[in-house]
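Hey all, quick one. A colleague (J.T.) asked me to put the 9MR job into the tracker so the inputs and the structure tokens live in one place instead of scattered across chat threads. No bug as far as I know, just bookkeeping. Sequence used:
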Amino acid sequence: MKAALLLLAAQGELAIDVNQIGFAPDAPKLAIARTPDAKPRDWRIEDDTGLTVLSGKTRPLPADPRAGGHQQAIDLSALTEPGKGYRIRIGNATSAAFAVAPQPYRPLASDALAFFYHQRAGTPILARYAGGAQWARPAAHVGERVTCFAGKDQRGNIWPGCNHILDVTGGWYDAGDHGKYVVNGGIATWTLLNLHEWTAGTAFPDRAQPIPEAGNGVSDLLDEARYEVEFLLAMQVPQGTTMRMPVNQNDPSETLTFTPVDVGGMAHHKVAGERWTGIPMRPDRDPETRHLYPPSTAATLNLAAVAAQAARIWRTIDPAFAKQCLNAATSAWAAAQRNPQLFAVGDFAGSGGYGDGDVSDEAFWAAAELYATTRDPRFAATADESPHTGRLDGEPGWSSVAALGHIALGLSDDSPRRDRSRALIAAAADRFERERHDVAYRIPFAGDRYAWGSNSNLLNRAMLLRMAQRWSGEARFGAAADDSLDYILGRNPMGTSYVSGHGERAMQNPHHRFWARQADAAYPGPPPGALSGGPNNTSMGDPIAAKLKGKCAPQRCWVDDIGAFTMNEVAINWNAPLVWVAATAP
Ligand code: 9MR
């Protein structure tokens, strides 16, 4: 019955889905037509004067339950003449405009990085950097000197608080909320720093971006990343600190037992408000009391990994900062060794959990980064003993970071470990690349479970594919990475570019407390370059998603609505791989 309804909903539609930025002249170019039936149709492409420049017939594709309805392929690879404002037409249906141009994703990469400037806490966002007065805002959460949450969490566990106060001003807001989380800050920062390493420092050189640090002689990519690295460092607990903590309890639903623990060198899991604020909410108007939340092993290992990575990057650029990072990394590592099982189990109101009951991948990642930076054989031995050494299950995400460790080793100059990690990444890329041939929209993900932030999963796959392409020379890997970008930018059954401001039919109403025009006309819409989390058919927990439950094909479980936080939020760990993939696109 439900399936029948789906089919009905899809019937009668005639639409053309295409990457709304466009293509490099020599790139393969695929668009997808959604048609009422499987009958082939004539298509033509018009240029911006209305002249037909190419035509052909659609090729019906096998039914794909991930998309629902009927899809047909339009191969426009023969369109190589540079131009703007091309459109594909089938009968009365017209695609969004797109361009054929060399390096078409440069502006996208820059706007995607600008997202991080907009998300900065503790500093005013100035019109001259923000791309317009509507996105300027006063400094918020300034002088953020905070202590630990004390009292009852939502499950009735009583947290004792702590005696220290940390100044954790700065860093990036995580997403549409104003929480700052070490776990998620870790992978987001790592991704930007890795882009610096991957491109040998050529991505976003000094003065490439409109940020306050432009002109300081340092890469703007590093300047932006450092804004968060310094926050991560600030989240470290002073040496010699004891706190009462739940140890080795990884089920958040159980009643917790607290024992005294030496937490010196660990990182607090997050700093956030006591309750969720409503929408809209300019951050400087946030009325909530903010607290540090308990340290966790996962946050500590995130700090160890990113600080180790930062230490090798800044070694020549700012040796004193590099040294500070290395000290933080090694002390965090030691603290995590001492406390390998402090899980983030508190069920606190007002912020996300980012809980993770398995930190073996975080330990592998941190050991790999520390080894790559120090070449200390102890870290190599720890990485070698890890269950993650000989395997790579999938793309990275905030809770599964083994791939980041393999990338660190894959970029190191220790040849046996480098080759082993590269081989694992190539094997994963090979699996991803094969998957795209089973999918009507030809993306390197053939599953039918679309996670919270699914667009970022796809982009993280694209990152691994690009790495495999460079290391193997196989063009199919790069083509599969390009397919991911095509999908993100409009070749999807929502007919939407999931990046604000990039494409004629782009996302406009992210779940964000400041880019909240949909909720309040006095607030701005999103600046260009913010990536929607994307379709989510696995945790449809917001009121908009709840209405779609059971009624959408996986790739269509998405609504451009500010209330749809499970489908249309933006987040630092999602925009970071967008920066990576856009900046490395041909
Ligand atoms: O990205 C996170 C996703 O994987 C989780 O399933 C979800 C629910 O715990 O939380 C997401 O992260 C959110 C975080 O908890 C709070 N800030 C916004 C993040 C993106 O929605």
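Adding what we noticed when we looked at it: The two ends are 45 Å apart (CA to CA). The first helix runs from residue 2 to 10.
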